[in-house]
Amino acid sequence: MKNIFKTEDFWSIWLGFLIFLLSSFIPKVPKFNTWEYNIFSIFHIEKIFILGCILIGISIIYSFAMKVLNQSYRKFLLGFIFISILSILALVMSSQVSAKAFGFGYAFWALTIGLLISNTMGTPNWVKPSLKSEFFIKTGLVLLGAEILFPKIIGIGLPALIVAWGVTPIVLIAMYYFGTRYLKLNKNLSIVISTATSVCGVSAAIAASAASKAKKEELTLAVGMSMIFTVLMMIGMPVIIKIMGLSPEVGGAWIGGTIDATGAVVAAGAVLGNEAMNIAAIVKMLQNLMIGVIAFVIAVIWTSSIKKETTVQQISFLNELWNRLPKFILGFIGASLFFSFILYPIIGEVAVKEILKVTVSYRDLLFTLAFICIGLESNFKELKSHMVGGKPIILYVVGQLFNLILTLFVAWLVFSGITF
Question: What topology does it adopt in the membrane (predicted)?
């Protein structure tokens, strides 16, 4: 208990809960209007002022955390100004009409901007103390937990549960086995790519990376592949579904079980209609719920493997499990339980939705900051050493193809009226 204020994992929980507490008093993160040619047309003084105040607030609470963690909050603040400016640029670019139509959201632009700077002029040394990608995204994942509401899950029905929870473990295990046994990739890289592909992309990759103690470059590689294929699948799957003549129910379930990012799932489902969009979003929400469970299982398995390689005197299983367990997952689960079984029954669905409108906007902003940091931390020369002859791409493509085929079969089985 003495370390609950001495690690980033725990601080991600405290900062996430602080945002929950303040959600009724703080404004939503403003969204920029869409623009086509004139980028300056969207710069409204009021929105810029509110966004600036929000970023100042975030810098203050993270600086306080830096101070408690015995890190230089002054150096953090200096670099955070630079990261904030880049984040605003990413948000502006994501609101461009054509980019938005093709699914290039804030995550794509944030990662791209960061990578361009890192691999051309190089990331300035004075910015590096502010590159807290995992800290930002872990806090965002705590906020994501509040969006997983059990009353909604209970009302979803068995078919969506089967697609989300039946297919995902099979794809995850098969991909990991293929990556380690046949492609001879190291187990950390294999599990991060496998989790990103089978569960829900970036969020799952972060959780798996934390549980397995994967290298930063391995995480970046998985995130990059996930984002590229998410865009391709978001554009291509609705077209394929229409050509195949699938029903909205089957098509929506197929999209929800295979496309990685929640936003892309909703966008792709919307092309097929409201019914497909709702089913797609529900299946993806159920997959999101598995983040905590899978992170825990990975921590247990990795701890067991270390235990076998060492003597009993050298390592305590429970201590190592606790060290490997991503603590922010406790916040993710806690937020889900609190919103599901305390807030939801007391204040009702409408009030909870109003709170979530605020927390979702902060989650997206934190993810934007995180992707800027990931880009600034990543170097193509270092990433190249993890490509191992293109094997990570082979793992992702083969795994995603298996995921597409199996999910389609199960979605057809449970949503076509044959079994239910």
Answer: Multi-pass membrane protein
